[in-house]
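Go through this chain.

——
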Amino acid sequence: MPRHVREQRRLIFWRGGSDPDYRIDSIVDSNRQLDLNKDVVPTDADIGSSTYLISRTWLDRKLRDCAAKGTRYVVSGRRVTVGVSPLSRATLG
């Protein structure tokens, strides 16, 4: 499930963790993180043969999905805490 990190302009693909003591903190160690400043191109055609670029349309869909269904996580260094409310469109701003 993708996670959007607004301040660092990242989209993190995180599937959770199996160890309950490390599950939340494992988001920091996700091996698939998109830099929204560098890895987003205007259209699907601009992706070409890239295995990491995403289109703006795809990103917009994922961000709407995060806002509608996601849980807010606050990442500070290597510390992650879970927010009590779902993401809002204002948070994604």
Notes: The mean pLDDT is 75.
